[in-house]
Design brief:
The complex is a heterodimer of chains A (114) and B (111). With 114 residues, chain A is mainly beta. Chain A has strands at residues 3-5, 10-14, 19-21, 24-26, 31-38, 44-50, 56-58, 64-68, 73-78, 87-95, 103-104, 108-113. Chain A contains no helices and twelve strands. In chain A, strands 2, 5, 6, 10, 11 and 12 form a six-stranded mixed β-sheet that branches. In chain A, strands 3-9-8-7 form a four-stranded antiparallel β-sheet, with no helix packed on it. Chain A is globular, with a radius of gyration of 14 Å. Chain B is built from no helices and eleven strands. In chain B, the strands form two sheets. In chain B, strands 2, 4, 5, 6, 9, 10 and 11 form a seven-stranded mixed β-sheet that branches. A four-stranded antiparallel β-sheet of chain B has the order 1-3-8-7, with no helix packed on it. In chain B, strand 9 and strand 10 (101-102) form a beta hairpin. The chains are: A mainly beta (114), B mainly beta (111). Chains A and B meet through strand 6 and strand 11 of A and strand 4, strand 5 and strand 10 of B.
Chain lengths: 114, 111
């Protein structure tokens, strides 16, 4: 069965510092991976996705994610954090070889300190 | 180009009642998925509609049902509401197999 783990409930980073939000996944076939962001009282906004190709994927708002097949990880990164990046971040996975159902992690709250 | 829209924004219902939530997909999208997001949790997949049929279903009871119309819009119906059904209900649209775009959600409170 597909699953996603986000091991940190909250990540605190000083403004201007690099940030990493961790995600590991489990699928039986090839993974289709996503990151979404949720601001208070809002729906989820798509940030980036990985299907195949270059392991470093660039997305919206300066975010990028690194796919590591051997470690089954898809960590979200940004070189320099902004206070406006403070939000709830969700990693999600779909098995490319199976159905269209997307499984979400429980989320990581990112808090950027001014 | 309008994104995904959902109505109503907020809803308060009493235990045992029935509720209908509505979703209009992003222009050009043919697939609609529904998720339940409880407080402090990630979205949980309820079901997905494509070509007016339920294509996939998550671990939700039959009290949760849906419909997709010829214009690709969709409804989520929940019967015999329980307190535990209180959550943010998210609709997402996509072209089949592609990334999903989410609406702002409907906040359902069951008292």
């Amino acid at each position: 069965a597909q699953s996603v783990a986000q091991p940190e409930d909250q990540v605190n980073v000083a403004e201007g510092n690099p940030l990493t939000v961790k995600c590991t996944y489990s699928v039986s076939g090839n993974p289709y991976l996503f990151w979404y962001v949720q601001y208070p009282n809002r729906g989820l906004q798509f940030l980036l996705k990985y299907i195949t190709g270059d392991n470093l994927v660039k997305g919206s708002y300066g975010f990028e994610a690194e796919f590591n097949k051997s470690q089954t990880s898809f960590h979200l990164k940004k070189p320099s954090a902004l206070v406006s990046d403070s939000a709830l971040y969700f990693c999600a996975v779909r098995d490319l070889n199976r159905d269209d159902k997307i499984i979400f992690g429980k989320g990581t709250r990112l808090h950027i300190l001014p | 180009d309008a994104g995904v829209t959902q109505s109503p924004t907020h809803l308060i219902k009493t235990r045992g009642q029935q509720v209908t939530l509505r979703c209009s997909p992003k222009s050009g999208h043919d697939t609609v998925s529904w998720y339940q997001q409880a407080l402090g949790q990630g979205p949980q997949f309820i079901f997905q509609y494509y070509e007016e049929e339920e294509r996939q279903r998550g671990n939700f009871p039959d009290r949760f049902s849906g419909h997709q119309f010829p214009n690709y819009s969709s409804e989520l119906n929940v019967n015999a509401l329980l307190l535990g059904d209180s959550a943010l209900y998210l609709c997402a649209s996509s072209l089949t197999g592609q990334e999903q775009y989410f609406g702002p959600g409907t906040r359902l409170t069951v008292t």
